[in-house]
Amino acid sequence: MFNKTADPTTAPIKPSSNANKSVLANDLKIVGEVTSGGSIEILGEVDGNLTAHGLIVGAEGRVSGTVRAETVEVKGRLEGKITTEGLTLRATAHVAADITYSTVIIENGATIEGSFTLRKA
After folding, report:
1. CA proximity to 58, closest of 98, 28, 96
2. Which of 59, 29, 58 is nearest to 45 (CA)?
3. I need a labelling partner for 40 at 20 to 30 A (CA). Which of 33, 62, 88, 107 fits?
4. What whole-number distance in Å separates Cα of residue 36 and Cα of residue 114?
């Protein structure tokens, strides 16, 4: 009944897009350096440097420090310095930072203080 063997010519199942996503829960506070080759979602607090492929700061999340990521989406609080290709500031975002970017989306209601510098091609 269950004796069928796997077909060796069948391509392996690829992991979902969440396979390289780390979530830092709302009860977690990290002081120091955080590095990931994937995406990070911050629901708690990070004080320090953060480097990742993608970053999401959740509505209750807080980041204070230097951020380097290909994409950054902020729903919570971010203070410091941001270097990114694509920045999205949601309506609930509170940002006080010097930002270097290629593209930016700012929703109505986002609070922003700091400077914006367009990345040179």
Report:
1. 28
2. 29
3. 107
4. 26
Return the domain boundaries, the chain.
Answer: 20-118
Nearest by Cα to 38 from 49, 26, 50:
50
How many H helices and E strands in the chain?
0, 11
Amino acid identity of residue 45, one-letter, is E
- Whether the predicted pLDDT of 12 surpasses 50: no
Residue for token digits 């629901």? 43
Kindly state the tokens that stand for 74.
Answer: 């902020």
User: Rounded to 5, what percent of the chain is helix, strand, coil?
Assistant: 5, 60, 40
DSSP class of residue 14 equals P
One-letter amino acid at 43 equals L
